[in-house]
Design goal:
358 residues, alpha+beta, 2 domains, twelve-stranded mixed β-sheet, 7 helices, globular
Length: 358
């Protein structure tokens, strides 16, 4: 189903000129930067910005990568910025940033392609393998407490339907089909198939896009945009909390989106919710989703392949507790096909649940 492209607010930074007008970072200077990051982790953002703006003047060896991981506490953003700086050094032509006009055209095509993909969403079934973990907020010490195997079916007339097939390695034989799996205890998420992408490109969201950098995702050249949806425009967003009664809070959204430079299709999004009401128990929500063109009955469709959801909740005693759901999407098939559990899908949790601080 083809849809007319609406105008989206677009602000393109002048990074192309900036890269051409500055001196690349030398090896010695970069070592000094990394030593400073180890002493003052907050300076990492300045190093990432310098890598994107200036690039590097030295060949990136495995030894330097290892040094950067150690000094930068294995930070993903620093690693990505360093790898992209090396690609720019090795091939400045292929990795150059597009002009303002080229960027606008790529974003408009991505908008059209995304809306068309959503409009042409096929009826399908897919298996979700979900690992749920928890940690005391800020520690990063994730402890897996259960694994789920869920059958998801999607049809245009009924939307998403979920059925739990197995939990902690044991088949669930009496599970009913629901519009979500939020009835389970513990953190749950949704929206990976349609809603998360749709709201970014929804005209009423008035999404602001800022060109940030270039990157490579699964071997494909991409443009990376920062984006933001203000709270008053995020009509389909927000955060909810399960309990004796369900409660929710509106929220804004700020994140990044990776767009394939050749096909103008979304390959990845990352975002966090903003402006959550201070009195609301949920204090933070982040999510990342990888997308790919998936084969269903001989046709290709843009669908999620991996999702990582994290939420932070504050207890009545002021203690903060984090939940994490890593979702792998396996075996997309045409609607009506049975979803079968394989031995590789049944993984028992390695830890017992933590005691939730009250």
């Amino acid at each position: 189903m083809k849809r007319t492209i609406a105008i989206i607010a677009l602000l393109v930074t002048g990074l192309s000129a900036a890269f051409a007008q500055v001196t690349p970072i030398s090896r010695e200077e970069f070592v000094t930067m990394l030593n400073a990051v180890q002493k003052a982790p907050a300076s990492k953002a300045e190093v990432v910005e310098a890598l994107r703006r200036r690039g590097i003047a030295f060949v990136l060896t495995d030894g330097m990568r290892s040094f950067a991981r150690t000094k930068g506490a294995n930070d993903d953003e620093l690693k990505r910025a360093l790898d992209e700086a090396e690609r720019r050094r090795a091939d400045p032509i292929a990795t150059r940033l597009p002009t303002t006009a080229e960027t606008r055209e790529i974003l408009e095509k991505a908008t059209f392609n995304t809306r068309q993909s959503i409009g042409d969403m096929p009826d399908f079934v897919v298996k979700q393998i979900i690992t749920r973990s928890e940690a005391y907020a800020g520690t990063g010490n994730w402890r897996p407490y259960d694994n789920l195997v869920i059958a998801v079916s999607y049809s245009e007339d009924r939307g998403e339907q979920y059925r739990v097939l197995a939990k902690n390695g044991a088949p669930v034989t009496e599970a009913t089909t629901q519009s979500s799996y939020s009835g389970l205890d513990g953190a749950t998420s949704g929206g990976e198939f349609v809603e998360d992408l749709q709201k970014i490109f929804e005209p009423s969201s008035r999404t602001r896009f800022d060109l940030l950098t270039t990157d490579v995702v699964r071997g494909r050249r991409t443009l990376v945009f920062d984006y933001e949806i203000e709270i008053q425009n995020n009509k389909k967003g927000g955060v909810g909390l399960k309990g004796a009664t369900y409660s929710s809070s509106p929220a804004g959204e700020k994140g990044r989106i990776w767009i394939d430079r050749d096909s103008q299709r979304v390959l990845k999004i990352e975002y966090k919710l903003t402006n959550i009401a201070p009195s609301f128990p949920v204090k933070a929500v982040t999510k990342s989703i990888d997308y790919d063109m998936v084969d269903i009955s001989g046709e290709k469709f843009l669908l999620p392949t991996l999702s990582d959801f994290r939420g932070t909740v504050e207890s009545t005693l002021g203690k903060r507790f984090e939940s994490r759901n890593v979702i792998r999407f396996k075996n997309y098939q045409k609607f009506g096909t049975d979803v079968v559990i394989g031995e590789e899908d049944i993984v028992e949790p390695s830890e017992t649940p933590m005691k939730n601080p009250n």
